[in-house]
Amino acid sequence: xxxxxxxLGLAAxxxxxxxxxxxxxxxxxxxxxxxxxxxxxxxxxxxxSGGFDVESGGFYGGVWASSVDFxxxxxxxxxxxxxxxxxxGGFDFDVGGIYYAYPDSPSAGGDQNFFEFYGGIARSxxxxxxxxxLSYSPEFYGETGPAIYLExxxxxxxxxxxxxxxxxxASRFDDFSGADYEDYSxxxxxxxxxxxxxxxxxxxxxxxxxxxxxxxxxxxxxx
Length: 223
Description:
Layout: E1 23-31, E2 35-36, E3 39-40, E4 47-56, E5 59-67, E6 76-88, E7 91-101, E8 114-125, E9 128-137, E10 147-159, E11 162-173, E12 181-192, E13 196-205, E14 212-222
Antiparallel strand pairs: 1-4, 1-14, 2-3, 4-5, 5-6, 6-7, 7-8, 8-9, 9-10, 10-11, 11-12, 12-13, 13-14
């Protein structure tokens, strides 16, 4: 389940100012785990992912896929997304929607597939950056009813091209009693060989029991 702040470090949406020319970019990544909102999607195993994005005049769309490992033998996630990013008053804004699909799920008719609307805001202050994002699904994964996810994070450039950042998120479910939880992460990221990104990130959720450390490498191309 891909979002801008995945441990894999690949953006489903971009907090960027509008550009006039069309831009096509791609990405591919390897990671020791695929963590979505604090929960492993690969049974604590490695993941490979990749996708393509198109942006023009602030509007963007894309597709992204990743390996997963669910107990029902689902092995693939496929995300389709689109939105609009713009700048105003020193802030960057982003609004859009994303559809999460699991093509080889035994319940591929729609039980696991779901859609989310999202809106985000971000701002940079020299070496410090901040962002927040709200996602809403009218019918969340597993047909568990409406769900909301609120996340925010701070990033600090600490030198040598390395960024330290921390994030916190809160998941709320209307029809899934007792399932609400918070997730936390802190990590380091940077770039080697010009366009190869790396990340090292620690994750946990409220109540404990889901601690993990993820190492990832990603490469972007095009643009």
